[in-house]
Design brief:
Blueprint: H1 5-13, H2 25-35, E1 39-42, E2 50-55, E3 63-69, E4 90-91, E5 94-96, H3 100-120, E6 126-132, H4 143-153, E7 159-162, E8 174-176, E9 178-179, E10 181-190, E11 194-195, H5 205-218, E12 232-239, E13 247-248, E14 251-260, H6 266-284, E15 287-296, E16 299-300, H7 305-318, E17 323-325, H8 333-336, E18 342-344, E19 358-360, H9 361-378
Parallel strand pairs: 3-6, 3-7, 7-18, 8-17
Antiparallel strand pairs: 1-2, 2-6, 4-5, 5-19, 9-16, 10-14, 10-15, 11-13, 12-14
Helix pairs in contact: 1-3, 3-9, 5-6, 7-9
């Protein structure tokens, strides 16, 4: 009997797997995949739950991979929901619940497609599923831990689909073939505290941080590339914590986030940020320190056999020819890209993380059909 991806989605939604809680989601998938003949192993690290599952021989030269996550963002105000966040209630064509869109439905669709495929037409090859409980968090002990586990045990994927929501409006309208890089810079600007009536005895860090914010945010990083939109920098907060109107503060802090294309690396951007901060410090007499946190580098899987395969399957099942895009934020594809060619394809994503998050039942079924067709053609 085939695996119903809608029922599986509902079962997963009922698991309260807010990062880093496993909530029973990976246990449920491990039981299902084990029954389907997959060899399953946990690859937990630092309290983060991760599941590795393979059908077929280890090291087979034709190994197809899927990647996804079962952890979800917090519910927020439960009273604002019209359906229980972990109730998986159905109303009309919609299944409601936290993670219904991002991305328990995607995991359910590829797990159901893989289980049914190996049962009906056992391929000459292997299928690997890597499913983490740490995508919505820092992710450093999620998919990276799974990839480290694979390297340690001699496992490898030839190609991989990450099942994140990728479609802006309708199922099949977009495939992600890359992502911009993301990094955050934290600045600390120090002056000298004093009375606002005696400027000559103080050094105000506020003009310095305003100057730095202006120079960074007004700088044109690039004009974009054939595959990527222009890189962007956003000053996201300036924090001083000064409640007294007659006191010049000793220091203030500023945070800036950069989304960058493959014209840059995090290292080259760090050098530029440091030089701008040093210049402002020299001009204003303040002391400026900086720390950076890199979420991922920009990457691109050039259009080719993998994106062609996925696009053909989408068009055959949905009638739509998808746009190949690099828009959006980061995903775990940023980790997989160092292991094998990777693209992302999943459901419509504009309701993810919302109150009353919901997913179209018809789209879950359609996504399973697309994944099934991809497997059939890959192993044909």
């Amino acid at each position: 009997m085939s695996v119903d991806p809608v029922r599986l989605t509902a079962d997963l939604v009922r698991c309260p797997s807010v990062t880093p809680e496993e909530g029973g989601a990976l246990q449920l998938l491990e039981a299902l995949l084990s029954d389907a003949g997959f060899e399953c192993r946990r690859a937990d690290r630092n309290g983060i739950p991760n599941l590795f599952a393979r059908w077929g021989a280890k090291g087979h030269p034709k190994t197809f991979g899927f990647n996804g996550h079962t952890d979800v963002v917090p519910v927020g105000d439960t009273a604002a929901w019209t359906h229980p966040p972990f109730g998986a209630e159905v109303e009309g064509d919609w299944l409601y619940g936290r993670g219904a869109t991002d991305m328990k439905s995607g995991v359910a669709a590829f797990a159901a497609a893989a289980a049914d495929f190996v049962a009906a037409t056992p391929p000459d090859g292997a299928i690997i599923l890597t499913i983490t409980g740490d995508e919505e968090g820092s992710s450093t002990d999620g998919t990276p831990a799974l990839l480290d586990h694979m390297a340690d045990t001699g496992e490898a994927m030839d190609v991989c689909i990450v099942g994140e929501p990728t479609c802006p409006e309708t199922l099949g309208d977009m495939v992600k073939i890359g992502r911009r890089g993301s990094m955050t810079a934290y600045f600390r600007v120090r002056g000298k505290q004093g009375h606002s009536a005696y400027l000559h005895k103080a050094l105000n860090p506020m003009p310095a941080v305003a100057l730095l914010a202006h120079r960074l945010s007004s700088h044109v990083l690039d004009e974009g590339t054939d595959a990527f939109d222009p890189s962007t920098l956003s000053v996201t907060t300036i924090d001083t914590g000064n409640s007294a109107s007659n006191v010049i503060p000793a220091e203030t802090r500023m945070t800036a986030n950069i989304r960058f294309n493959d014209t840059h690396t995090s290292a080259s951007l760090t050098d530029w940020l440091r030089s701008e901060a040093d210049r402002v410090a020299a001009e204003t007499g303040t002391a400026i320190t900086m720390e950076t946190q890199v979420s991922g580098e920009a990457f691109l899987t050039p259009p080719g056999p993998l994106s062609d395969l996925v696009s053909r399957a989408i068009e055959a099942e949905t009638g739509q020819k998808p746009v190949l895009s690099t828009t959006g934020g980061t995903s775990d594809a940023r980790w997989v890209r160092s292991h094998c060619p990777v693209v992302e394809f999943g459901l419509v994503g504009h309701r993810m993380h919302e109150v009353d998050e919901r997913v179209s039942i018809a789209d879950i079924e359609g996504l399973k059909r697309v994944y099934s067709r991809i497997l059939a053609e890959y192993f044909a």
